[in-house]
Amino acid sequence: MLDERKRNILKEIVDEYIATAEPVSSAVIVEKYESNISSATVRNDMAELEKLGYLEKTHASSGRVPSAKGYRMYVDELLKDDNISLEEIKYIQEKLENKADSIEELTKIATTTLSEITHYTTVSVGPKTSGQIIEEIKFVLLGNRMLMGIIVTDTGLVKETIIKFDEDITAEQVDTLNYYFNNKLQGEPIEKIDASLEEYIFRELKYSVKIIRPIIEQMKKLIQEEENIYLEGANKSFELPEFKSLELAKNFVNILDTKELMLDILNTGFAEDIQIYIGDENDNKELKDFSVVTFKHSVGDKDLGTIGIIGPKRMNYSKVISVMKYISKKLNENDNFNKKD
Amino acid sequence: MLDERKRNILKEIVDEYIATAEPVSSAVIVEKYESNISSATVRNDMAELEKLGYLEKTHASSGRVPSAKGYRMYVDELLKDDNISLEEIKYIQEKLENKADSIEELTKIATTTLSEITHYTTVSVGPKTSGQIIEEIKFVLLGNRMLMGIIVTDTGLVKETIIKFDEDITAEQVDTLNYYFNNKLQGEPIEKIDASLEEYIFRELKYSVKIIRPIIEQMKKLIQEEENIYLEGANKSFELPEFKSLELAKNFVNILDTKELMLDILNTGFAEDIQIYIGDENDNKELKDFSVVTFKHSVGDKDLGTIGIIGPKRMNYSKVISVMKYISKKLNENDNFNKKD
DNA sequence: GTTAGCAGTCGAGAATATTGAGTGCTAAAC
DNA sequence: GTTTAGCACTCAATATTCTCGACTGCTAAC
Predict the structure, then answer these.
(1) Are residues B163 and B19 in the same domain?
(2) Residue B298 burial (CB < 10 Å; 0-12/13-18/19+)?
(3) Judging by DSSP bridges, how do beta strands A158-164 and A121-125 pair with one another?
(4) Which residue in the set A102, A162, A234 is minimally distant from B102, CB to CB?
């Protein structure tokens, strides 16, 4: 459908617009990229590309700007080369090397690094609790009336919670709790901590409600727990020319401030590959003026969290995708937390 | 120095400016507050108040706007009555009642509530680790090569960390660790976890470096740990007319995004009372166009965290102070976490 | 299919005019 | 001495007009 030259010109226009944030004129294309043809020829091609929906004009006599369809084409078919420097590779390696104490920590470091290199606002969320397999449960007595409950899952995730009681707990009771909970739950998915578990423990242990109830309550809270959202470089976006529009800037802050929306964004990506949502492609219409790019921090089929970038539609997709790909690969290699020992 | 009428007029101007964000004219004062005197009289008083530095003009023929000194006078001497409704009191009571699982959680709930009622951006930070007294230390074996280290302090703060090893750990080793660590550290301030502790443990236990080193490292990290900043209602500020200025909006996002700055803000308040910093009064010049109001979540002399509001200089001090006072009082009463049991 | 050339469009920015919300000051009234 | 009416003056904000020039689209020639 599109001949080689038109494809090139489309790519050049998107590149140029990403670089300058100004509508791109035929003259600029000739000057910087296509010295062999005249601006009139470029204009003809541009008119064609506009008719096909890849380009738009901001007003009748302006240069061209990519449409959502134009960006999509650019991302899907025109971007081929990686866009990541040796320095950036070295920087990422250094950052991700072994320093994290936990999966969540590693995801955070990756999120920060991603923001540092791309200069966009990045965001991440830890692994989903649901679906994880319980490897071990442990209750630890702290003082006389406080327990810490700890769950270790197959992905290496460790979750803990404090449980308080109105009466004293004995060491023997703790041992018994450990025995029964592990007996029932080891190897089971974490969702098995539910009402039926409470019944089971009641039946087997016959402890007072005052002891069993708080434990079950807290453990349930633990697995339903809202994920912690980690945000980095919110201020960086404000340097971008699109945020000169107060309206847009306000929308952006609103988005970042709305937890549910952020979780939505981070939970849409299912595949392990990089997901790209450009403008209207986002499910949520609040995001119609922005682009979102996400990927899963995962090892094998284990979901260890999701990391994303939120920025203007005029995003440096090339850089963003290249850097994400590399970080994703490194996270996979750097699999410290999935070792079975 | 200021007669009664001038004080009233100053208060009225500040009130009016807080309410409308528009420079206040003599006519408005007569219309809304001082129906007995003429606008010319008000103008004379305003000129006087300006000469004394309490008021400013935005340009030669504009109405008056409070200066920093004016706000300071307003806050220190002119605000007397509480400004909190029964509904608000009920709402706060409901929110703070018993629902938190930990001090940090309670602080977060209070922070959110404060933002909901005042419609300003609020921020908080958990209790400072330093200075806390260790009540108990516990190591728990998870799997064969992973420990969880737990510290419980006198304020009820529970901190935990994961420690990973390259070799297996036995249950006996864990028992011994528990014994020696508690023996050495119970009743001591948390800073005692340092190099000399490492020596002591080495001397007494003679375990391999491979075991001792990671433990000490992680425990040290735990106490140095950067506090988690909790931010609520960043978007609310953007509805305010002062944030029409892109410059100011950008500064604001920058401030919220800079952890060090936020910690600075939250760490300046020493006394238990409410601290108010208006514009230039802030130590950091990034904050010169904003006001910061903070108070400590504390019980007795125990610091359990700090909560603050960041907003425009034209802040509703009356409401903010009243609500903070009430929340502060409630947090004190609601002292679930300081019970010795 | 390509290109030169030119008319036409329209946003951006500068220059100017208009309005009206304020003040400060003066002189008279209290 | 304090208060007030009255009026001249100031100045931001807004609207109006003008000019400029960066573009395109189209036509006709190559």
Answers:
(1) no
(2) middle
(3) unpaired
(4) A162
Residue with tokens 């190099």: B195
Count of the separate structural domains present in chain B? 3
Residues A141-163 have a mean pLDDT of 92
Q: pLDDT-derived band of residue A199, with 50, 70 and 90 as boundaries?
A: confident
CB B154 within 8 A of CB B138: no
> Which residues in chain B have their CB less than 8 angstroms from residue A162's CB?
101-102, 158
Sign of CA dihedral B30, B34, B36, B37: negative
Q: What does DSSP assign to residue B206?
A: -
The two tokens of residue B213 are 């080193």
Residue A120 sits in the same domain as residue A232: yes
Domain extent, residue B44, equals: 4-78
**Cα–Cα distance list, A227 to A75, A159, A312, B292 (Å):** 31, 12, 25, 29
- Residue A220 belongs to a domain with what CATH number? 3.30.390.60
pTM: 0.91
**B341–A143 C-beta distance less than 8 A:** yes
Q: Rounded to the nearest 5 degrees, what angle is found at the Cα of A228, between the Cα atoms of B122 and A131?
A: 155
Percent of residues, chain A, with pLDDT higher than 90 = 71
Q: Do A235 and B253 touch (CB under 8 A)?
A: yes
Same domain, B191 and B248: no
Of B183, B206, B224, the residue that ends a domain is: B224
pLDDT in tens, A31-70: 999 999 999 999 999 999 999 999 999 998 999 999 999 9
Residues of B in contact with A101 (CB under 8 A): 161-162, 164, 218, 221
Show the tokens assigned to B184: 């050495």
Bases on strand C under 7 Å from any protein CB: 2-5, 8-11, 20-26
